[in-house]
Design brief:
This protein is mainly α. 63% of the residues lie in helices and 0% in strands. It has one domain.
Length: 73
C-alpha cells in the first residue's frame, strides 16, 4: 500500500476530523440524530486517513498529494 496523502493534506484531514468530532460531541442534544451520525462518520474518515496517510478514494481515482520521493512502497 502506497501513501498518497501529503503532509499538508494529512494535517487538514485530521483537523477537520477533530472539528467534526467536537461538533458531534457538543451538539448532540441540538442536532437531529442523522446529522450527528454524519459528523461522526466525517470525523472517523478524517482522523483515520490523516493518521494513515492513505485515502481509498485517492487510490481509486489515482490522485496523490504526496511527493513521489515520500511515497511508501
Amino acid at each position: 500500500m502506497r501513501g498518497c496523502v501529503g503532509v499538508t493534506d494529512r494535517i487538514l484531514r485530521a483537523l477537520i476530523g477533530l472539528v467534526a468530532l467536537g461538533a458531534a460531541l457538543t451538539q448532540q442534544a441540538q442536532l437531529p440524530l442523522g446529522w450527528v451520525i454524519v459528523l461522526y462518520v466525517v470525523a472517523a474518515i478524517g482522523i483515520i486517513t490523516g493518521i494513515a496517510g492513505w485515502c481509498p478514494l485517492y487510490a481509486v481515482v489515482g490522485i496523490g498529494t504526496c511527493p513521489a520521493a515520500q511515497r511508501r512502497a
